[in-house]
Amino acid sequence: MVCTTLKPGIECIFMKKTGCSYSGGKCFPIVENCEGCARVVEFETGKYCSTFPYPAQKWQKGSCPMATHLKKASKAEEQKINPLKASKRAAGKK
């Protein structure tokens, strides 16, 4: 259903005929870590996350999994190559 409390016009899974069914009956505003994310939507009532109703919870155990403003390090860059194995592979390809 469409939210009628804090984010009017946005489709929300927590909105029921009786009102918002999320904890406390409302979504929570973004935290400082969310600034710069593409999922932040600004309304008259404040700035809210379009993905999570309680953004602070997603930042408690590290970074938010849906954050678009953070760059994630790939495992390929971190992996070190053993020079001995690399030389054996190169010798075997000849």
Can you give a write-up of this model?
The chain is α+β, with helices and mostly antiparallel strands and 94 residues long. The protein has one domain (15-92). Helix content is 19%, strand content 13%. The chain has three helices and four strands; from the N terminus they run ββββααα. Strands 1-2 form a two-stranded antiparallel ribbon. Strands 3-4 form a two-stranded antiparallel sheet. It is elongated. The model has no long low-confidence stretch (mean pLDDT 83).
Q: What structural class should be given to the helix and strand makeup?
A: alpha+beta
Mean pLDDT: 83
Placed side by side, the strands forming the largest sheet appear as 1-2
Low-confidence stretches: none
Q: Please provide the count of β strands.
A: 4
Total individual domains = 1
Number of helices: 3
Helix content: 10-25%
Task: Categorize the overall geometry.
Answer: elongated
Element pattern in H and E: EEEEHHH
Radius of gyration: 22 Å
- Report strand %: 5-15%
